[in-house]
Each structure stands twice: as structure tokens, then as C-alpha cells.
């Protein structure tokens, strides 16, 4: 009887550990604070670093500011070498959810980039499929970024950090939320209270925008994550006549530098 109970407990533990998550809502406050290789894996989050090219070596840390904890990516002596933060395994995305997170550069650090994507294996970053272009983190204040997540067979969310200006870059991330997306056709506004609204015109040749301030730049990506169009509005309109039918994801950069994400369907 005792052996049966022990076997049952072990089996339950294994199932719990490997369970795929339908959503994520991680603020990292339940993590143990620390620096270096002893920090991860933790709470099913894992990391991959580049090989060290000198002293100090790259690190992925859990640091705190008051009662708030967050992840800190430190590039060490590396430059232009990515560090990866990998989520717990999620249920294969069905295209009905959005990923949002806060990110910044540490005060005193050179700017770096963060790019979010999906992978099929937590140990093989060659399977990385980006959800959008890399975003430069130039501000030392946390800003929120949001990306629609397309349907995919990949089941891990990955954050790719790169110090592109200089070595010893320190980038930070917090409040990762993967959940049901907002209404199609309305951008996930980050800083402004004036939502940027748009619609595909009747001819399916352009996006018509309605906003008090025209976006600074538009980037459009296919469902596979490839950039297929980029540019500015022309009389509150963005040309999509060259795009094939399908689902597309759009990055909208405001005049203040805020990047928001939305998606649309070209029929």
C-alpha cells in the first residue's frame, strides 16, 4: 500500500511539473532573488546564455526594487550576442490570445533590444519564430508592449535580449501576461488614452485610420512572423493592396515612440 501511494505521488508530481499552461500571468514576485547560474531554472522558467567571451560573464538575474521583483538580463562582456528567457510550456497557441509585458533598460546601461517569439523546444533557439521586430529599449522607465500571438505548433514563449550598442548591457522585464486578446481592429494602447482605430476598406486595398494623431510608422507582419510591409500613412490610409488574403499583425509606432500591436484580416 505504501509503495502504491508513493508511486501515485510521484506520478502526480511529474504530471503537474509538465502540465501545459493555457495562460500566463507572471510578475516574478514569487521568485527567489539572486544572480547568475543558480537563479534559473525557477518556477518552470529557463534561460540560455551565450558563451562568455571575457570577464564578467552574461547572467540572467532576479532583482528587486522594494517589494517588486523582475528579471534582469546582463550581457557581461558580450555584444550582439542574444540571451534568452524561456517561459513554461504553454498549450499550442490557437491565435486567440495576446502577449503583453513591461521592459526597460537599466539606468546607466546602454540601450539594447528585446524581441519576443515562439519556439518548439526550450533548448533549441534555432526554432525561434518572432512575433514582431526587435524593439529598442532606450527608456529607463518600464513601458508596456503587446503582441498578438498567432496559431502555432510551438509551445514556449521566448524573450530574446541583445546588447547592440555596447557590452555590459542591462535590460529588465516584468509583468508577463499571455491571455485572451482584445477586440480585432483596435490597437492595444500603452500610454495614450486616445485609442488608434482602423478598418480595412471595402475594396480590401487599404487600412483606414481614425485617430487624433497619425502614427509615426506602421509595420505589418505575416502570420509566420515575416515583415511584409512598412511605411507611413497617406491621408490617414495605409496601402495593403499588395498583400495576399490572410491574417496579418501590425506594429503601430506613435509620435512619442510607443509601439502598440494589433491585427487585421485581408479578405
From TrEMBL:
Keyword set includes Nucleotidyltransferase: no
The Secretion system C-terminal sorting domain, residue ranges: 213-265
InterPro entries per the UniProt record, alphabetical: Secre_tail
Signal peptide, first to last residue: 1-19
Keyword match Chloroplast: no
Keyword annotations: Signal
Name by which UniProt lists this protein: Secretion system C-terminal sorting domain-containing protein
Source organism (scientific name): Chryseobacterium piperi
Amino acid at each position: 500500500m505504501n509503495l502504491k501511494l508513493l508511486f501515485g505521488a510521484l506520478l502526480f508530481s511529474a504530471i503537474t511539473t509538465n502540465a501545459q499552461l493555457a495562460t500566463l500571468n507572471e510578475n516574478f514576485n514569487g521568485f527567489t532573488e539572486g544572480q547568475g547560474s543558480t537563479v534559473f531554472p525557477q518556477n518552470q522558467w529557463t534561460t540560455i546564455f551565450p558563451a562568455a567571451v571575457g570577464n564578467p560573464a552574461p547572467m540572467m538575474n532576479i532583482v528587486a526594487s522594494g517589494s517588486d521583483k523582475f528579471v534582469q538580463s546582463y550581457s557581461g562582456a558580450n555584444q550582439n550576442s542574444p540571451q534568452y528567457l524561456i517561459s513554461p510550456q504553454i498549450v499550442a497557441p490557437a491565435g486567440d490570445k495576446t502577449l503583453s509585458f513591461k521592459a526597460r533598460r537599466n539606468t546607466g546601461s546602454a540601450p539594447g533590444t528585446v524581441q519576443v517569439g515562439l519556439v518548439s523546444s526550450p533548448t533549441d533557439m534555432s526554432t525561434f519564430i518572432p512575433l514582431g521586430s526587435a524593439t529598442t529599449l532606450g527608456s529607463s522607465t518600464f513601458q508596456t508592449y503587446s503582441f498578438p500571438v498567432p496559431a502555432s505548433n510551438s509551445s514556449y514563449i521566448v524573450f530574446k535580449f541583445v546588447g547592440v550598442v555596447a557590452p555590459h548591457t542591462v535590460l529588465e522585464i516584468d509583468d508577463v501576461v499571455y491571455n485572451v486578446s482584445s477586440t480585432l481592429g483596435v490597437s492595444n494602447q500603452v500610454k495614450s488614452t486616445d485609442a488608434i482605430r482602423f478598418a480595412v476598406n471595402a475594396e480590401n486595398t487599404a487600412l483606414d485610420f481614425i485617430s487624433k494623431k497619425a502614427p509615426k510608422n506602421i509595420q505589418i507582419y505575416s502570420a509566420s512572423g515575416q515583415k511584409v510591409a512598412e511605411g507611413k500613412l497617406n491621408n490617414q490610409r495605409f496601402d495593403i493592396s499588395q498583400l495576399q488574403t490572410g491574417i496579418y499583425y501590425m506594429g503601430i509606432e506613435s509620435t512619442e515612440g510607443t509601439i502598440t500591436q494589433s491585427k487585421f484580416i485581408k479578405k
